[in-house]
Amino acid sequence: MTDLKKLKQLVKLMVDNDLTELDIEGENDKVKLKRKIGEDVQIIPAQGIMPQAHAAPMVPAHAPVQPPAPVAPEAEASADEGLLEITSPMVGSFYTASSPDAKDFISIGDAVTESSVVCIVEAMKVFNEIKAEVKGTVVKRLVENGQAVEFGQPLFLVKPD
User: Fold this and answer.
1) What pTM does this model have?
2) pLDDT for 1
3) With bands split at pLDDT 50, 70 and 90, how would you rate the model's confidence at 143?
4) What is the 3-class SS of 74-100, one letter each residue?
5) What fold characterizes domain 74-160?
6) What is the pLDDT of residues 113-130, one digit of tens each?
7) Count of C-beta atoms within a 10 Å radius of residue 132
8) Alpha-carbon span 131 to 114, nearest angstrom
9) Taken in order 83, 72, 123, 152, is the CA torsion positive or negative?
10) Cα 33 vs. chain centroid, distance in angstroms?
11) In terms of DSSP H, where are the helices of 17-161?
12) Strands 84-87 and 154-160
């Protein structure tokens, strides 16, 4: 089911029939598609097949891009044991808010749920809302606003509830 042609057919089926959610499970794979009416389709990975993406407007394309942050020392890694990571599902530019003058989506100490939007990652001029996908309290932000991020790169650390 991971064939791009088949995936496009499923998206067309959703749009043509005004479906908001489609969940297909086969013998070797699983595909779940969600969309809000009037917005782009969101593709949720079943087995790490495709990154999750969701369009979001109003992030400045002119914000400065910084190089990736250096890897944390081993001493810090032991202090972070037991914490959950919120990782980037794609390569792009990390933003803490929807515009330069808007309030950050989350701050250190905020409680998040699986559906909480924590940041935006811009990839190829598309602004993708990134959801926490974990429940707990944000204890650390690992990247700076405007910084380039890689697929799977940790963005936040969360103390689980």
Assistant:
1) 0.52
2) 41
3) very high
4) HHHHHHCCCCEEEECCCCEEEECCCCC
5) OB fold (Dihydrolipoamide Acetyltransferase, E2P) (2.40.50)
6) 999 999 999 998 889 999
7) 24
8) 7
9) negative
10) 15
11) 74-79
12) antiparallel
